[in-house]
Design brief:
mainly alpha, 385 residues, 4-stranded mixed β-sheet, 2 domains, abc type-2 transporter like fold
Length: 385
């Protein structure tokens, strides 16, 4: 135990003396979290620019435009006379939707014909395109129902009968866990944790590579009484303490600063996050012990951590990924962690339902830690010779 304490004190002294390392360890993750949190601070998309081509200029067409402009997600910012001008606005990314109302639109409605309103959607941005498409369908459905109701009333059908004809089945639609479709609540925590995942792997790489770069490996072994295992344990404990501090800052301050609510208890999520930290740091240690040089280890870190968020299943369901990929991505701690984290912080599911993910993180961390120890053991022996 004394050997492990010696390694802990030694690591803390090194961090305190090295200002750049101290800054990177303390300030960099916090600054990165603030920067990423600011991207989606508006929480939902609103006042998206739309364009109108009104070739009818009638009372009904003006009402349709008024409905679109009244929607909080959209705002009519321009009017053009033809589709070619609309295409030009799309190319300049100055409009996300084009509303085309043809000539004789109102006359055709009065003649009980079915004129067509064309909605052009700039889907180059998937998210804004989805928002305006959903809103335009809802608005046009309401307008259709209003026009049909007016026609049926003129034919002498009572208002109550009209409602039953237009809506034979009533729909009660309730959104759970993120009812306002708040983009900040949905995406920002995943991005934060993805950055922390990269940071923890990097720490695992650097804490061992520095010993070889500065040729202090034998000094470390002297403090641990020639035990590589105890040296790795001591280093791991130091950075788990820093990880604990970062997660406390993240959950208690950053989430509140950006108005993101955590539904689950802070204690359970902190314990779960420490298991994630153990697995991530162990992966970094393993990468350095396997790839031998800091440069190669950093390349390996980048290769694994850069696509980790996209492969984690946070934004695209793992079930929809190819069989080989959805099984391979579980070698990354972020995949298991985010699966459980989303259930805890969004759905407030009991900790019992995340035990499988906790076990997976602990097993993964233990495997990487033991592999790091084995490779480091033979490397140090070779280094001694």
């Amino acid at each position: 135990m004394k050997s492990i304490i010696n390694i802990i004190l030694r690591e803390l002294k090194f961090i305190a003396k090295n200002k750049i390392y101290f800054f990177a360890l303390i300030a960099f993750p916090i600054l990165d979290i603030i920067f990423l949190g600011g991207i989606h601070i508006s929480q939902t998309l609103n006042k998206l620019p739309i364009t109108v081509i009104d070739n009818d200029n009638s009372k009904i067409s003006k009402n349709i435009i008024r409905y679109f402009n009244a929607c909080p997600d959209m705002q009519v910012v321009s009017r053009v006379s033809n589709v070619s001008e609309l295409q030009d606005l799309f190319n300049k990314q100055e409009s996300v939707l084009g509303l085309y109302i043809p000539k004789k639109f109102q006359k055709d409605i009065k003649k009980q014909k079915s004129p067509t309103v064309t909605v052009f959607i700039n889907a180059s941005n998937y998210i804004s395109g989805n928002v305006v498409e959903s809103d335009s369908i809802s608005i046009l459905s309401i307008i259709n129902a209003g026009l049909k109701s007016s026609m049926l009333t003129k034919k002498g059908i009572y208002k109550r009968q009209t409602e039953e004809l237009l809506q034979p089945v009533r729909v009660d639609n309730e959104k759970l866990f993120n009812p306002s479709l708040n983009y900040n609540f949905y995406l920002t925590p995943g991005l934060w944790l993805s950055v922390i995942h990269q940071f923890l792997i990097l720490i695992g790489v650097l804490t061992l590579s520095i010993e070889f770069d500065l040729k202090t490996i034998f000094s470390m072994l002297k403090q641990s009484k020639q035990s590589i295992f105890k040296a790795l344990v001591g280093k791991m404990l130091v950075y788990l303490i820093f990880a604990f501090i970062h997660f406390e800052i993240l959950y208690l301050f950053m989430f509140r600063l950006f108005n993101i609510q955590i539904l689950h208890s802070n204690k359970d999520i902190i314990i779960y996050s420490i298991c994630f930290s153990f697995a991530s740091i162990s992966l970094g240690m393993f990468l350095f012990s396997l790839l031998k040089t800091r440069l190669n280890a950093l390349k390996g870190c980048l290769l694994l951590s850069a696509p980790a968020f996209l492969l984690s299943g946070y934004t695209w369901s793992l079930d929809q990924m190819p069989y080989l990929i959805k099984n391979m991505v579980h070698i990354l701690p972020l995949t298991s962690f985010l699966e459980g984290f989303k259930k805890m912080y969004q759905q407030n599911i009991s900790i019992e339902y995340t035990y499988c993910f906790t076990k997976e993180l602990l097993v993964l961390g233990s495997i990487y830690f033991m592999l790091a120890y084995i490779f480091m053991y033979f490397r140090v022996k070779k280094y001694e010779n």
